[in-house]
Amino acid sequence: MASQSPKIAFAGLGAMGYGMAAHLVKSGFAVTGFDVYQPALDRFSQEVEGALAAKTPREAAQDVDFFICMVANSVQATPLLFDGETGAVKELKENATIIMYSTVAPAYIEEIQRRLKDIFAGIHIAMANEAMGLAAAAGLDTKDAYEKLKGSEASSWMFENRVPPMLDSNSPRFPLPLLSTAEQLYLTAISNGWGAEDDCVLVRLYLPPDQGDLVVRQVGTKSSPTAPNVSHNVSWETIRDIMIGVHVAAITEAMGFCEHIGIDVALMYDVVNNAAGNSRMLESCFRGLKKQGWRVWGLEESNGIVDRLAKAVDDVCPLQYPLFLGSAALQELWRQRRTG
Predict the structure, then answer these.
(1) CA dihedral 182, 183, 185, 191 (to 10 degrees)
(2) For 69, phi and psi rounded to 5 degrees?
(3) How far apart are CA 197 and CA 56, in angstroms?
(4) pLDDT of 274-283, one tens digit each?
(5) Contact (CB, 8 A) for 329 and 254
(6) Where are the beta strands (DSSP E) in the chain?
(7) pTM value surpassing 0.70
(8) Which residues have a Cβ under 8 Å from the Cβ of 105 and sit 6 or more positions away?
C-alpha cells in the first residue's frame, strides 16, 4: 500500500507532530521525518516501524508529494523551508504540496507563495519603511510618492499593503507590546543564525555568551555561576509570579486585540484553550477579564498579581538578568491603570 500512496515528508516531531506522523506511517504512507531535536528524530525512526528519518529538511523533501510543516510558528517554518543550505523548497519536485499546520497568520501563506517566487517578504517590509521614511525626510509629498512608486517597477506586494496604514492618520491602532517584544526575541535569534534550531535556543539571549548551556548544567545543582558574589531573593516563586503576570498581560493584549478587530472572543478562547496557546491563567481569568473590558484593574485578584509581578521584577534586578517579557508585562499593566 505504501508504494502506491503519496510520499510524505513530515517536519516537526514534537508532542503533536510525532503522533500525527506515526499515524500516517501506520496507515500505509511512506513518511520521512525531520526534527531539529535529534532524540525526537531517533525515537520516530526507531519506534515507528517503517518510518524514515532525514538529517535536513531538504533531504526529507526529496521526491515527496506532500511536505507537512508541523513546527511551532513562522519563525521556525521560514528556515525550514527557505534556508539556503538545508531548506526544503529547493528539493521539492514540481506540483508538490506544502501543508502548513504551524501557528501562522493567514498572510504568512501568501508570503510563502511569494517567497516561492523568490520574493523575500521580510526585506520588502523593511524596504517599504525605508523608502517612505526617505520620502518624508526629503520633503516629498508622501502620498504622491507612494502612488508613483506603487505604479513603478520598484513596487512589491508588501510595499502596496504596508504603506497605506502609514499614510492614514485615522488608521486604527492597537498597542501590542508583548507581541512586539516576543517578535524581537525571535528576530534576534534568527539574526544570530539560530533560526533552524528548536525555539529553546532563545534562552541563550538571556545568558552570558559563554554559558548558553547553563540551564542543562544547573540540573541538580544550587549555585549562581552568572552572579556568584551577588545576594538576591530569586526563588521559584519569583519566577512563578513573573510568569503569571506575563500570562495575564498577554490575555488582556490578545483578547483585547481580537475584540478590537471584530473577532468573537469566545470562539478565540475555545481555539486557544484547546491548542498550544493554553495557560492556566487563561482558564481562570478569561471571564473576569472579559467583564472588565480586558483590563486587569477591577479583576478581584488584580492588585495581588501586579504587586507580585512588580516585586519579582525588583528582586531580579541584582542578578542583572534581562526580563524582556516580564518588564514589558509590568509596564503594560501599569499603563492600563494610568489610562483607567
Answers:
(1) 170
(2) -105, 110
(3) 11
(4) 877 889 999 9
(5) no
(6) 7-11, 30-34, 52-53, 66-69, 97-100
(7) no
(8) 74
